[in-house]
Each structure stands twice: as C-alpha cells, then as structure tokens.
Amino acid sequence: MEEMTDALRRAFPFWEHLSQAEKERLVDHTRPLHYPKGGSVHRGDEDCVGILLVKKGQLRVYMLSEDGRDVTLYRLFEGDVCILSASCVLEAITFDVCIDAEEETDVFQISSQTFRALSEQNIYVKCYGYQLTTTRFSDVMWTMQQILFMRADRRLAIFLWDEISKSGSDEIHMTHEQIARYMGSAREVVSRLLKYFASEGIVTLFRGGIRIVDKNKLRGLI
Amino acid sequence: MEEMTDALRRAFPFWEHLSQAEKERLVDHTRPLHYPKGGSVHRGDEDCVGILLVKKGQLRVYMLSEDGRDVTLYRLFEGDVCILSASCVLEAITFDVCIDAEEETDVFQISSQTFRALSEQNIYVKCYGYQLTTTRFSDVMWTMQQILFMRADRRLAIFLWDEISKSGSDEIHMTHEQIARYMGSAREVVSRLLKYFASEGIVTLFRGGIRIVDKNKLRGLI
To answer: Which site among A71, A144, A185 would you substitute to test the B interface, given the most B Cβ atoms closer than 10 Å to its Cβ?
Structure first.
C-alpha cells in the first residue's frame, strides 16, 4: 500500500495539486496487475482499462490494419505511464490503438472511472493527461518519420541488389551522383545511406564504386 | 479591435478563466496577419510564429523528409486554431512540422511569448494547448491509418470522390504531382493508378486535370 502511494506520488506531477480526499480516492482505486508475456492489454475501442504505471516489464503500443498488419508506435518501460489505455477518458482522442505486454509485466492500474472523475474536478489532472498524450504524439511522429521517409534505404538496397544480380559481380562501378539519378533521389541521401550501409558491414566504399560484402544483410533490407 | 476580441472569446474556451489583465494582455498581443497563397507559415524549428486563429483561407500542415518529399498531416480552415506553429511553447512537443498557406489566408496571430507567459501563469491556458494538440494527434493518426494501411488505389478513389463532392464539378484541375502531395504518395504511383482508372473507364485524363466519367465505378472502389 505504501509502495503504491509512493509510486503514484513519484509518477504524477499533479499529486501536489490533489486534495487529501482526491489522494485517497486515487490510492483506493489503484491496484497492482500482472500481464503475462504476449498478453493483450488493450484492444482498440473494446475496453478502457485505465491509466497504467509500469513497474516492471514492457508494453508495446501499435496500430492494427483491418487485414491484421501492425505498426509499432512506441514502447513503454519501467516508470513510464501508459495513457492511451485510458483513451476513453480524454475526449480529444478519437483514434484507437492496441497494446500488448512484450514481457512479463507488472503495473499499477488506475481505473478509468477514477481518472475521469478526478480530471473533471481537477484541471491539473486533466492537463496531465493531455500533456502526456502530447509526449506520445511526439514519439509517434518520430516513428512515422522513420516509416515514411526511410523508404529510401529500401530503394537503395533494391537498386544495389538488382545491379549485382544483373552483372554477376559484387562490385558496382558508379558514383553516388549516378545512383541518385537512377533512383530519383538526391546525391546527399545516397551518400548518407551508403555510409550507413558501410557502418552496418553491408558494403565497403571505394573511389568510384561500391563493393557488397554481406549479401544476406543487403537482402534483409529489401 | 472588437472583432478580434470577439474572435478570441469564441475560439478559446479558456477565455472565461482569464483575469481581466490576462484578457487585455492576450488582446494586446494578437494581430491580424495575411499569408499569400503558397506562402510559408512555419518551417520546422526555424521559427515560432505563435498560435494562429484562421479567419479565412486554408493552412496545410505537413512533414518534410530530408530529400524534400512531403506528407500532408492535416488541413486547417476557417475557425480552426493552429497550435503546432507554436510548438516551441509546449515542451512535450519534440517534433517539427512545416505549415504553408494553401490559399490566400487571413489569421489572427497570438505571439508565442504571450501564449507562453499565459500558459505558465494559468493552467487553463496550458491545458487548452495540450488538449488541442491531442486533437491534432487524432487527425494525424487518421492520416497515418490511410497512408500505412489503405491500398493506394482506394486512397486515390477517396481523394477524387472528395474533390468532386466539394467542388460540385466532374473535373479536377490538378497535376499528378499535386495529387501525390495531397495523398502522401509519389507522382509515379498516382500516374500509374490514373492510367489504370482511365483504362477502366472511370476517368479521362486531359492536360492539367482529370474528368470523372463513371461516378458509380469510382464509388465502388471506396
């Protein structure tokens, strides 16, 4: 009980703005919960499990398409607070995500009803919810940046693969400028990616060309 | 002046929680501003123009990759409030976006400094900022769902359908490049799909635009 109160005080910056009665209400409606590895925590709009404070383990938050493909948005670890599992409480959230436990995970769960009631009567609680959601927005934007714009690495990998398949040689004698033109990209982008491929041990670079040193890794990018 | 005060009162739910001095400060640091069609409003972390209340016109908020490709996140119209143009004020926002005026656009601009000062002294202002950002998060998630999971042909069909529904005309005067930008796709993809739509008798293509010739078939793709 004391461990829990302590954890809540440390996790929530609005704690000092709560009345004694509000603090008690929060503690009374918080409970420890365990999710087994691989267990489902939250499924779109089917439930509203509430705010989860991660004590141990890992939660994965992801989007699911109708045909079952998924995209990881971000992961939460010890000390993180999961807010999208209480998306029903925050009316400005109109989308749904899924959340799974990636490891054996222990959390403190604050019920949605309690969080809703507190955020309606205390502006600091409400503000905390939206501020935390904005932090997750930042996480998602970082992920999207990778997904949407990192496609260039795949295009380059495909290009290199095609070249060595065509020529039967492991060496490609082309400048970065020429490759960029073939790919419809910019020289700077190609140079940056080739440097990255080199640091990953996929290629080595030499004057006027590229040597593929790990075909399996290259293939893995396609 | 009175028009401006009126607009602020209507736009901001925190208005009633402001002291008289805070109201005066807000009004004193708000000014009308015009952006020409195509003009840049905000560029990543290069500036912090403040909160923009759209009076007339349209703002487009988008992500830009290093090699210049862009993905539209959402659009703002009359009566909407642009918050990411003041991202420097909200510390939970750690990403950057770009904002352009898509039409001749008139706004009321509240300076970043003023909004920062008000949100530091008044929790209702701060809460408003984060709540509005969460609403935009919802917009972005909707867009991402389209981009990541929906087949490009369906997205193009939805786009064309929306355009003719908005304009009431069967003709869309846009280049493939422009459509690709709106859809967060590539010109080559749009051109290939339009050629396919044409071969199916759904559209005919003319220089600078597209004519929808079979609305039922188009609808069937949605």
So the answer is: A144
